[in-house]
Amino acid sequence: MDGFVHLHVHSHYSLLDGGNKLGDLIEATKAHGSTAIALTDHGNLFGAAKFFKAANAADIKPILGIEAYISPTTRDDRSMGNQKTAAYHIVLLALNTAGWKNLMKLSSRAYLEGFYYKPRIDRELLRECNEGVICLSACLGGEIPQALMSNKPDLARKIASEYLDIFGPERFFIEIQNQGIPEQTAVNPQLVELAGELGVGIVGTNDVHFMTRAAKGSHEVLTCISTGKTLADDGALKYPPELYLKTPDEMREAFK
After folding, report:
1. Could you tell me if 122 and 70 are in contact, meaning their C-beta atoms sit under 8 angstroms apart?
2. Residue 121: φ, ψ to 5°
3. What distance lies between CA 131 and its chain's CA centroid?
4. Do residues 7 and 16 touch, judged by C-beta distance below 8 A?
5. pTM score, two decimals?
6. Average of per-residue pLDDT across 245-255
7. pLDDT tens digits, one per residue of 16-56
8. Which residue in 29, 93, 148, 196 has the fewest CB atoms around it within 10 Å?
9. Cβ atoms of residues 256 and 204 within 8 Å
10. What is the chain's alpha carbon radius of gyration, rounded to the nearest angstrom?
């Protein structure tokens, strides 16, 4: 895994779901011996300009991206009863200038046209604004993993085929993660099998939400603020301790 690059990373611009400062991410990337890093904040591009400038200044290649929210139907459909079924995750990365321009269009129109619980895009927008954009199937919150977790492999294959049709085999990838979550252990083999069936590549990511394992506690304070709970409450949002900016060696160990 020489030359490993983190492609699923959140900063403090993932509002109340990330505490990483852009400078810290870039400094740690350089210390790890990596040459590039992506920024994929939840539903927005607020940190992109500062990230781009800071990374270039440090001789680190910035990969501009977004972990967007996508409606399972259309962006103007507000018939879903809750956030979980209204907005799934999808990771989009800019391949070039055209891709960056399309990320800006997608993010803006998600707020202006698709907001329901979250700023949402849909397949229509992806077909219209996909030039220069790379698509990853995202974490367990993505449409494909969610279908597999619901024991609906045919639906997962249908969704993956739709993404493949939009982006093509060169720009659509199945994303896998390994943070010790039982659902990942169950779903990852199915994701790998699906990638093989469709003839698309696999990308290993770590869904970085905090800088180090020790920073997990401070991140949970943010999520408590976001959800209106306290650390002592039952049902408070708890993240695995592995969602930090791991070194290439640590990522190699996770995916061995």
Report:
1. yes
2. -105, -175
3. 19
4. no
5. 0.96
6. 96
7. 899 999 999 999 999 999 999 999 999 999 999 999 999 99
8. 196
9. no
10. 17
